[in-house]
Amino acid sequence: MTELTLGKALGAGLREAMRDDDKVVLLGEDIGKLGGVFRITDGLLDEFGAARVIDTPLAESGIVGTAVGLAFRGYRPVVEIQFDGFVYPAFDQIVAQVAKLHYRTQGRVRMPITIRIPWAGGIGAAEHHSESPEAYFVHTAGLRVIAVSNPEDAYRSLRQAIASDDPVIFFEPKRLYHHKGDVDLEAPLADAAPMGLARVVRTGTDATLITYGAMVVTALQAAEAAEDDGISLEVIDLRSLSPVDYDSVAASVRKTGRVVVAHEASREAGVAAEVIASITERCFEYLESAPLRVTGHDIPYPPAKLEKYHLPDLDRLLDAVDRVLDRPNSLTGAGA
């Protein structure tokens, strides 16, 4: 095992994918000589050359459109969108072409494109640099949507995404880029858990806390704090947002009977709403209380000095846990 930051693990995943297949090419703004804004692609230009690590103009629609053309010609393009809020100029290309061309051509054309997106808040960034647009892509048929939360997952899932014949939107929680963890760089990719499976990161019996991305860290902190009050929380990292591994989710919910779903994105029509609706369809007779959401507020992402009030935190998660358990809670002083 090698200890790497999440950012270095992503770089290692890109390097291995490029070594494994010379049809893998990288495109993005400043990814070559600079190594990307977050230095994820640092060193890859020197190793693989400018024909495979391509610095592009500042034109996200053009970047993704070029990737579509490369995929038509048999390449496996990996696109870096510099920040989450910059993906919108490429939205038409993604939902109208990347997601649909395989279906439109009755399977004759594949779109093995991986679109990497540094994503979500918590770093004190400027406007359009801390957004959570995952629901747009989850709603779009034809796309896989992955959100990683630790270095091992980042390394494995990125390699799996690049090897997949499906187009993958790959969300990287930028506030975890410097978080460290052990990564097995030697294990064969075939031995890794499929990228579509959820992962139980902490077992528990009283309630299930479901989340993804950087919120996994907050959820684990909440579980540790709840343990001091004698509450046993099971924490599930969804990992894949489309498709969702509902078998693993349902198994946990049937055990605990209580559910809290959390994410940074706004509440209205977010991933949490879909997860809760699907849990209710599958597990209604097992539920002891109504599932709850803990999310960002339904506002444009706030200025950096105010983002701590927008992002779900330990207290908001624990308050929701108290409510599904019908315990007196800190916000109301009474049961739910």
Describe this structure in words.
The chain is α/β, with parallel strands linked by helices and 336 residues long. It is 34% helix and 20% strand. It has helices spanning 6-20, 44-48, 60-72, 91-98, 101-104, 134-138, 151-163, 215-227, 246-256, 271-283, 307-310, 314-324, and strands at residues 2-5, 24-28, 53-55, 76-80, 114-119, 144-147, 168-173, 180-183, 199-202, 207-211, 233-237, 240-242, 259-266, 292-296. The strands form three sheets. Strands 3-2-4-5-7-6-12 form a seven-stranded mixed β-sheet, with helices on both faces. α8 crosses α12. The chain is globular. It starts with a strand and ends in a 12-residue tail after the last helix.
**How many strand segments?**
14
| H-E order | EHEHEHEHHEHEHEEEEHEEHEHEHH
Shape: globular
> Using only CA atoms, what is the Rg?
20 Å
Major pleated sheet: 7 strands, mixed
Question: Strand-residue fraction?
Answer: 15-25%
Structural class: alpha/beta
Give the overall pLDDT as a whole number. 95
| Order of strands across the main sheet | 3-2-4-5-7-6-12
Query: Poorly predicted ranges (pLDDT <50, ≥5 residues)?
Result: 332-336
